[in-house]
Automatic annotation (TrEMBL):
Residue ranges annotated for the Alanine racemase C-terminal domain, each copy included: 244-372
EC nos: 5.1.1.1
Residue list for modification N6-(pyridoxal phosphate)lysine: 40
Pathway terms, separated by semicolons: Amino-acid biosynthesis; D-alanine biosynthesis; D-alanine from L-alanine: step 1/1
GO terms for cellular component: cytosol
Lineage: Bacteria, Bacillati, Bacillota, Clostridia, Eubacteriales
Gene Ontology BP, a term: D-alanine biosynthetic process
Domain of life, source organism: Bacteria
CDD domains the UniProt entry points to: PLPDE_III_AR
Name of encoding gene: alr
Record field: catalytic activity: L-alanine = D-alanine
Reported cofactor(s): pyridoxal 5'-phosphate
Organism: Sulfobacillus acidophilus
Residues engaged in binding substrate: 138, 313
Molecular-function annotations in GO: alanine racemase activity; pyridoxal phosphate binding
Name recorded for this polypeptide: Alanine racemase
């Protein structure tokens, strides 16, 4: 007889793992370099407010977000640390940033006109970070454009020149050529500002997680730590970090099917022999990507079981080996450890032919998060 029960897909975030990872980065940079904890995209899916509170209590100095609205959420949670909006902002978003005492990133003349116009309107001096494009070729002022005009504007009375920043494109790569080229360009801009005779930016920040671990020369007086904070490996061969999230679900149905049974939408898997098929209450609407169909594995009773058939919006089917006892309501580990076996987020990303950043940030809002210390 078929037995069903309510969904049980849940994410468990171990905040102590984040604390341990932060401590590793602190050890690398020392006490005199500020750490900006990147909590954009809901702290890479881990929960922005909870993570921010934790890291600030353990010595992080700044928070980094992608949008003014993300920063607003943190301010409304009564967090008072410096917060930088890393991405581009519309005039409306810059207004939100000013209203909530957020630092903003400027990278073109239009952004400059917006922020200074708002400064005059609100009678405040915004805290501005100039982003220089040293080779990523996304947002950023071209290095050769950082002339006396930009320097004069930023060091004037309309704004507080809070930072000069750039972003590394290949700090995770085996070769260091691109990173060293970008560092050289950044240093040239820093020297140009220094020799101009004006009061330069308060903070210089270039390093991401990978560069913080690999390239001490990129540290300056602040580093930005994102993926590594959550235990994601920033590059192959990185020091051991503690994954902070475990993603689990539950078995909702177990069926014995004969050989030749077509499983799921489109019959994309056909059983070769009599088989045990477990249906699991997770799907691509939870962030368990459809690209994992017929590729991924999960853990049931600590044993690896292959995902078979097309992943649906809310359900996934798994082939359970004969030696694995399985029943309705059994816990299924999608990412994390169960007994002696572990499925890493990097492994899931490989199956999905993507990167672990996308897997982490893609876990949807309908998956409840639970926190432990």
């Amino acid at each position: 007889m078929a037995v069903a029960f309510a969904r049980g897909t849940e994410a468990y975030v171990e905040l102590d793992a984040i604390v341990d990872n932060l401590a590793l980065f602190r050890q690398r940079v020392g006490p005199d370099v500020a750490i900006m904890a990147i909590v954009k995209a809901n702290a890479y899916g881990h929960g922005a407010v909870q993570v921010a509170r934790t890291v600030l209590s353990q010595g992080a100095d700044w928070l980094g977000v992608a949008t003014a609205e993300e920063g607003q959420e943190l301010r409304e949670a009564q967090l008072t640390a410096p917060i930088l909006v890393l991405g581009g902002s519309s005039r409306e978003q810059m207004g939100i940033a000013l209203a909530h005492n957020l630092d903003v990133t400027v990278f073109d003349r239009a952004g400059w006109e917006d922020i200074t116009g708002l400064a005059r309107e609100f009678k405040v001096r915004p805290r501005v970070h100039l982003k220089v494009d040293t080779g990523m070729n996304r947002i950023g002022v071209r290095p050769e454009e950082v002339t006396n005009d930009w320097i004069r504007r930023l060091s004037g009375s309309e704004v507080v020149w809070a930072g000069l920043m750039s972003h590394l494109a290949e700090s995770d790569a085996l070769s260091d050529v691109v990173t060293r080229d970008q560092l050289a360009v950044f240093l040239d801009v820093v020297e140009r500002i220094r020799t101009s005779g004006v009061q330069g930016p308060q903070m210089l920040h270039l390093a991401n997680s990978a560069a913080t671990l690999r390239y001490p020369g990129t540290h300056f007086n602040m580093v930005r730590v994102g993926i590594g904070l959550y235990g994601g490996l920033p590059y192959d061969g990185a020091p051991a970090l503690r994954p902070a999230m475990t993603l689990t679900s539950r078995v909702t149905m177990v069926k014995q099917v004969p050989a030749g049974t077509r499983i799921g939408y489109g019959g994309r898997y056909v059983t070769a022999r009599p088989s045990t098929i477990a249906t699991v209450a997770v799907g691509y609407a939870d962030g368990y990507r459809r690209a994992l169909s017929n590729r991924a594995e999960v853990l049931i009773q600590g044993q690896r079981c292959p995902v078979v058939g097309a992943i649906s919006m809310d359900q996934t089917t798994v082939l359970v080996p004969s030696q694995v006892p399985v029943k309705v309501k059994d816990r299924v580990v999608l990412i994390g450890r169960d007994g002696g076996n572990v499925i890493t987020v990097e492994e899931v990303a490989k199956w999905a032919q993507t990167i672990h950043y996308e897997v982490m940030t893609g876990i949807s809002a309908r998956v409840p998060r639970f926190y432990s210390r």
